[in-house]
Design goal:
heterodimer; A: mainly beta; four-stranded antiparallel sheet; 11 strands; B: about 110 residues; mainly beta; globular
């Protein structure tokens, strides 16, 4: 039972570099989400997807792009990393609206 | 402007006693509330939820109380156990939609 798997677990980037975070779920969930967590703040929704091939903006989408080409995968891209994007990123999935979210273990990203 | 506030960053409770974690919200449109628990280096896991049509929901040692007039909810854990030591997040949503609004979390420490 892998659930939601995020790769990588840690990453250090220089300002301006790009990277992609991968999220994979094996629960056949329709909905997937990307959140960021910063010290002293709650989780904030970056982007989400309600099904394969669909994506939508969340609360803090600027500087990020996402793709959901396959139902089980949700990718988060940073085209030009900035120090303000230093954070812990969590991916989550759920079977439907109103259902509790299942989270991955997070990716700690540092941008210098 | 934080719509969901957890004003206690940390709470220390003796094993076997009751732990009470509090959460306040400002948006009267919120109609569904959830509590998640998070251990270090792991993602949050769903604990318990409550709809605004109820004022109490119970699941084993965990009970959530909702006071709509005060815009306040609380999570009671009885009796507290060492494994309950974690960060607890409260989250709220409108019409169970995709966008959960999260509090900053309360770190609960259970003392032996």
């Amino acid at each position: 039972n892998a659930g939601v798997t995020q790769t990588p677990k840690f990453r250090v980037l220089k300002t301006g570099q790009s990277m992609t975070l991968l999220c994979a779920q094996d629960m056949n969930h329709e909905y997937m989400y990307w959140y960021r967590q910063d010290p002293g703040m709650g989780l904030r929704l970056i982007h989400y997807s309600v099904g394969e091939g669909t994506t939508a903006k969340g609360e803090v989408p600027d500087g990020y792009n996402v793709s959901r080409l396959k139902k089980q995968n949700f990718l988060l891209g940073l085209e030009s990393a900035a120090p303000s994007q230093t954070s812990v990123y969590f991916c989550a999935s759920s079977p439907g609206v109103g259902s509790p979210l299942h989270f991955g273990n997070g990716t700690r990203l540092t941008v210098t | 402007d934080q719509q969901v506030k957890q004003n206690s960053p940390s709470l220390s409770v003796q094993e076997g006693r009751i732990s009470i974690l509090n959460c306040d919200y400002t948006n009267s449109m919120f109609d569904y509330f959830l509590w998640y628990k998070k251990y270090p280096a792991e993602g949050p896991t769903f604990l318990i939820s409550i709809s605004s049509i109820k004022d109490k929901n119970e699941d084993g040692r965990f009970t959530v109380f909702l006071n709509k007039s005060a815009k306040h909810l609380s999570l009671h854990i009885v009796p507290s156990q060492p494994g309950d030591s974690a960060v607890y997040f409260c989250a709220a949503t409108i019409d169970s939609n995709y966008q959960l609004i999260w509090g900053a979390g309360t770190k609960l420490i259970i003392k032996p």
